[in-house]
Design brief:
The complex is a heterodimer.
Chain A: H1 7-14, H2 18-70, H3 75-82, H4 87-98, H5 103-115, H6 118-128, H7 131-141, H8 147-156, H9 162-175, H10 181-188, H11 198-209, H12 211-220, H13 224-236, H14 243-249, H15 255-268, H16 274-280, H17 286-299, H18 305-311, H19 317-329, H20 332-342, H21 347-361
Chain B: H1 4-53, H2 63-67, E1 74-80, H3 87-95, E2 102-109, H4 115-123, E3 126-127, E4 141-146, E5 153-158, H5 163-173, E6 178-182, E7 187-188, H6 192-196, H7 198-202, E8 207-216, E9 221-223, E10 226-229, H8 236-258, E11 269-273, H9 274-279, H10 290-305, E12 310-321, H11 327-347, H12 358-391, H13 397-426, H14 432-444, H15 449-465, E13 480-481
Parallel strand pairs in B: 1-2, 1-6, 2-5, 8-12, 9-13
Antiparallel strand pairs in B: 3-4, 4-5, 6-11, 7-12, 8-11, 9-10
Helix pairs in contact in B: 1-8, 1-12, 1-13, 8-13, 11-12, 11-15, 12-13, 12-15, 13-14
Classes of the chains: A mainly alpha, B alpha/beta.
């Protein structure tokens, strides 16, 4: 029978007691870790030297790129001048510059990335690279709107890593008008592996082109997180046709959905929302009552003055505070109501006095 | 007077009496030390896994573009007590943080120096009114100050009540869903908030608290409230603490966070959901370990409510703090930390090995028992008894060597291992010389410094048993300015 390659360890320890093994292994690990550290120190010294040279080179490269951009060179000249450069270095420099450059210069830089093959590399690395490679590739591909780039990003939406799926969705939301909210819901595992706040911006960008899909989602999907995201996007697209669907959500069984519906109605600012808002001022949950108060103040529902005045005596401080703020927003009539309450006593008078005095100081 | 002969006879009697127990005591000591070392090794590997797989945002320079859309508004709570020399510069650096929507709430905790006047004059503050909810308890607020020139700065002047009391006042005044507690003498890196808040953005329903890495600023160059050049301290006491902080933050907290059993977020830099912090009554006044206690309370509350939650630690965000450079001041700090740990442990002892509290009760809290309650006395007992038992012939050299391995040599592996993690994954020390010095210090700290620390912790335990309550004075020498 062949001996196992690690048999020497077994042989080494077999005649030892546990106590001896503790002593020997502690010495071994102590020496191993110290030697590893010595190697890392040496490696660092070598890398620092190399990095110093690289930094000088990258600085010069950056300057060359900027000079070419100023000289209005065409793409062919640019490519010619950078053909011997390391594409990784150019990618790094260009990605840094893109953060602060707009207009034609930006387009030229993106074309340079294409010309020297960075985009093609990104297509390959998105399929076969490590997770970091994939994230960097998505960052590059987000600059392009050609069919292979979009197809690769759609492919990345099937990646097993939720961060990669999310980043691909973000890039597609920016570049692909065909991306649907249905695909987002299908592939992102919203509320499961993906719970990022970035989803709100993605839903908003995608939803702008697919308002009806958002409404369908609201009516057809029972998942709380998806309803909240749809309402977030719907509230910001300023399409009055969605108001009935949002009003329906104001009586959802989920607290977060009801509160988000109030926020959406506030953003849309349609008068049809009034009955739902008045109703929400008496919601069982204070978060919804407080949000409804903000909504009433922003839209300017004078009909809410009486329920808002009642809300000044709410058992939750934030509901009282938002009611007082809303009354201030409702103008003279609201302020008058607030002043009347402030002349009394108790918690409603206290919050009325505080908000009125804050307004005076401001 | 007792003669030498009588003394020798008494000693022999004592030795004979104790010998039957020597084996039991020695095995108990060595078992506890073995358990500690196994746990540290596990932590080291867990931390390595987390660091390897942590989410990196490609192109660090683009952090702002990538992260700012997902942020949530945040209130920075800065308790200040007698900080007249540093407060203006530190507030300026906080106001200049890279973050889309935040406010700075400085809480002057009844300073006896000119902290309040200095900050009022520097920022041209005027009395303001700001309605707030009396959600958590604190001493009376004497006044609020603000300025049209700095709309996101509020200064609270209140009666002295200690750090937890000041933080509670800040929580009440805060109007944002998140708050960040920051020590007035700490310096945040400009994108620290942006990065630290990401766990909330990635899982906004479940994440309730996040801690970030705290590093030692002694030796670093500081300009306008920012660390401009990272260096290592020249003072040996501070150097030992650099290694200690690496071990505590890069290894221990990262590993416990991975296991969902993080029991401490440093008071110098932690972000919390305001609603949840209020639900547990804010910071407690009856402990000097208020930063640990609020985390333990959060675990306890969320488990008792049956709610899903996460308490995270993120290794990248950095808060720089000044470490004590004298043994006297360091000793005071360590005695206080030990007292704080014991106060929290005994206050919440119900959680120990209680499955109702999940991983926190079954793993996090037992670790507090092992590391903070049993660890120091057993280690000190070992230093005294094991050589004595050996001298008395209670066990052979093999046992003594195993003890030396567990109490000294494994410590070298753990300390150097943390430094290896730092260099492989973070590379925050710019020069190879820094790493060489820190490697030497990582070895050296196991022979003297660690034992001294244990002595201080024993004194802290004694203070806890005696019911001592004061904080003790912390003396600082200030950052090296450029």
């Amino acid at each position: 029978m062949d001996a196992h390659p690690l048999n020497f360890i077994v042989i080494f320890f077999q005649d030892m007691t546990v106590l001896s093994a503790v002593w020997v292994s502690s010495l071994f690990l102590g020496v191993l870790s110290s030697v590893t550290m010595v190697i890392l120190v040496i490696a660092r010294a070598i890398r620092n030297k190399r990095d110093d040279k690289l930094q000088v080179h990258l600085k010069a490269l950056r300057l060359r790129i900027l000079q070419f951009m100023e000289s209005n060179s065409d793409l062919e000249t640019l490519q010619q001048n950078f053909k011997d450069e390391n594409t990784e270095h150019i990618r790094e420099m260009v990605m840094q510059l893109l953060g602060s450059i707009k207009g034609e210069s930006r387009d030229l830089l993106i074309a340079l990335l294409w010309g020297i093959g960075v985009r093609d590399q990104a297509l390959t690395r998105l399929k076969k690279g490590t997770n970091i490679d994939k994230l960097q590739s998505i960052e590059v591909l987000a600059l392009f709107t050609d069919a292979p780039a979009l197809a690769a990003l759609h492919g990345a939406m099937d990646d097993e890593n939720p961060n990669i799926r999310l980043m691909a969705a973000e890039a597609l939301a920016e570049n692909d008008p065909e991306l649907s909210v249905v695909e987002l819901v299908d592939k992102l595992d919203i509320g499961g592996a993906v719970r990022s706040r970035m989803l709100r911006e993605i839903f908003l960008k995608v939803g702008q082109n697919h308002v009806q899909d958002l409404v369908d989602l609201l009516e057809g999907v029972a998942i709380e997180d998806i309803a909240v995201l749809s309402l977030y996007a719907i509230g910001r697209v300023q399409d009055y046709s969605v108001v009935p669907a949002v009003i329906k959500q104001a009586s959802s069984k989920h607290l977060n959905v009801r509160a988000e519906a109030m926020r959406a109605l506030m953003m849309i600012g349609h008068p049809k929302a009034m009955p739902a808002v008045l109703n929400a001022l008496e919601d069982l949950e204070w978060q919804v009552r407080a949000q409804a108060a903000i909504c009433a103040g922003v839209i300017g529902f004078k009909e809410a003055i009486s329920p808002l005045t009642k809300l000044l005596n709410d058992k939750e401080w934030w509901a009282r505070f938002r009611a007082a703020e809303a009354l201030v927003k409702l103008g003279d009539d609201g302020i008058k109501a607030l002043e009347d309450v402030s002349a009394g006593d108790g918690r409603s008078a206290q919050i009325a006095q505080l908000v009125l005095s804050e307004r005076r100081v401001a | 007077m007792i003669s030498w002969v009588e003394f020798a006879a008494m000693f022999d009697g004592f030795a004979v009496a104790i010998m039957p127990w020597a084996s039991v005591v020695s095995i108990f000591i060595i078992s506890i030390m073995a358990a500690q070392n196994v746990l540290y090794m596990v932590q080291l590997f867990l931390a390595y896994g987390v660091l390897r797989n942590r989410r990196l945002h490609p192109g660090v320079s683009q952090a702002w573009q990538q992260l700012n859309v997902t942020t949530m508004p945040i209130s920075l709570l800065v308790p200040a007590y007698n900080e007249e020399t540093t407060i203006v510069e530190n507030v300026r650096s906080m106001l200049a943080l890279h973050y889309p929507n935040f406010e700075v709430i400085v809480i002057n905790d009844g300073s006896s120096d000119a902290t309040l006047r200095t900050v009022i004059d520097a920022y041209d503050l005027k009395p303001v009114v700001r309605p707030y909810e009396e959600a958590v308890k604190h001493k009376t607020i004497r006044g609020l100050y603000g300025s049209v020139n700095y709309p996101n700065l509020i200064v609270v002047d209140k009666e002295n009540g200690g750090k937890s009391d000041a933080l509670n006042a800040g929580i009440n005044l805060s109007r944002f869903p998140l708050f960040c507690s920051v020590d007035a003498d700490s310096l945040l890196e400009s994108d620290a908030l942006l990065r630290a808040v990401q766990p909330f953005a990635e899982d906004q329903e479940r994440v309730i608290a996040v801690g970030g890495t705290v590093r030692i600023a002694n030796g670093c160059s500081v300009r306008s409230g920012r660390v401009t050049k990272v260096d290592i301290p020249t003072n040996l006491v501070a150097l030992f603490q650099v290694v200690e902080y690496l071990r505590a933050f890069l290894m221990a907290r990262l590993a416990w966070s991975k296991l969902d059993a993080l029991m401490l977020i440093s008071g110098a830099f932690g972000i919390f959901k305001r609603g949840e912090a209020i639900s547990v009554g804010g910071y407690s006044h009856d402990t000097v370990g208020e930063d640990m206690e609020i985390i333990v309370k959060l675990h306890r509350y969320m488990r008792e409510q049956g709610r899903e939650y996460r308490i995270h630690f993120v290794p990248d965000p950095v808060c720089w703090t000044e470490a004590p450079e004298s043994l006297a001041v360091l000793g005071r700090q360590r005695r206080r930390w030990q007292r704080g740990s014991l106060e929290v442990f005994f206050k919440h002892r119900k959680m120990l090995f209680n499955p109702k509290y999940g991983v926190a009760g079954m793993l996090g809290f037992p670790h507090v028992l092992l590391a903070d309650v049993l660890g120091p006395p057993i280690e000190v007992l070992g230093y005294l008894l094991i050589p004595f038992f050996f001298w008395m012939g209670a066990f052979d050299l093999e046992f003594l060597l195993a003890y030396v391995a567990l109490s000294f040599i494994f410590g070298v592996t753990i300390s150097v291992g943390s430094l290896i993690l730092e260099e492989m994954e973070l590379k925050r020390f710019p020069k190879p010389g820094h790493l060489a010095v820190l490697t030497a210090v990582s070895i050296l700290e196991n022979f003297g410094y660690r034992q001294l620390n244990n002595f201080w912790r024993m004194v802290g335990t004694w203070h806890f048993l005696m019911g001592k309550k004061e904080w003790g004075k912390m003396t600082r020498s200030g950052f090296k300015k450029t």
